[in-house]
Amino acid sequence: MKINSIVKPNSQRRNLMAQLFFLFTLSSVIFSLVALLALLIFVLQEGLGSLSIKFLTSFPSRFPSQSGLKSALYGSIWLVVLTAAFCLPIGIAAAIYLEEYAKKNFFSSFVKLNISNLAGVPSIVYGIFGLTLFVRALAFGRSVLAGALTLALLVLPIVIVAAQEAIRAVPNSLREAAYALGATKWQVVRQVVLPTALSNIVTGVILALSRAIGETAPLIMIGALTFVAFIPEGPLSPFTALPIQIFNWISRPQAGFHQIAAAGIIVLLLIVLAMNGIATYIRYKYYRHLG
Questions:
Q1: Fold designation for 55-290
Q2: Alpha-carbon span 156 to 282, nearest angstrom
């Protein structure tokens, strides 16, 4: 009787705490979804009427009815391509070294810890660093190159961590089988590890680039232009990007600019969703192939 009298109240208390925790997490999810849905409905109501082919193929203007996203779209494409060109080779090579070649000691653990910490640094810090190094010290100015290098530093830790996780997920049995056949370390990495981990690496890279395309604070810090009526002609050309153009329109008092800003938000959301959809599809195809 004494044991039952002790266990029963504790069991009831644990069940009560479990139910309260379940309700708390469920209400958090519902609140987040409702808030997100409300924002989406508001943006769609404001911006759908301004979406058109003319909107995508016109340069910005002082008049809302004549403004478009052409320069911002080209600027974002330049940024994403150059950011990928800078961060992908370095990020994947760093992940390969840390997982396949680096000795398991304090130094390598310290480096991995700091890379993970850098992935959580606020983007404005990278903007300040990019302004100091790329814009002023290296004299790249307010160019696409300076913006791409800044964004490359921003997403580089994410790419490294994603590639590390993908390489770490490769079964050791595959490596051991390759070594048993006489393969060298580089042959194992090039012909076994990388092909097996490639889909997960590509998924992580696409998610990192989808973050880069939506960043505003670093580009504002390096001085990206808010009004550009031309297409960048090279890496050293001045530029604008979708987040900067949207920020410029939303900061104006006229209601017409707010409507085209909402249309720009829809375009940016569609691009980000498309990139995330591609990443999800690649992962699905990979796991389906394994199955």
A1: MetI-like fold (1.10.3720)
A2: 21
Residue 44, C-beta contacts closer than 8 angstroms, at least 6 positions apart? 262, 266
pLDDT digits (tens, 9 = 90+) for 174-213: 999 999 988 889 999 999 999 888 888 988 888 899 889 9
Helices (H), the chain: 2-47, 53-57, 70-96, 106-118, 123-130, 144-168, 172-180, 185-188, 194-213, 217-221, 242-250, 255-290
pLDDT one-digit tens code per residue, 225-283: 777 888 888 899 998 899 999 988 998 888 889 999 999 999 999 998 888 888 888 77
Distance CA 290, CA 155 (A): 29
Closest CA to 130 of 152, 111, 114, 115: 152
Give the Å distances, CA to CA, from 28 to 23, 42, 66, 274.
Answer: 8, 21, 42, 27
Helix, strand or coil, per DSSP, at residue 161: helix
Query: Would you kindly state where each structural domain of the chain is located, as residue ranges?
Result: 2-50, 55-290
Model confidence, pTM:
0.85
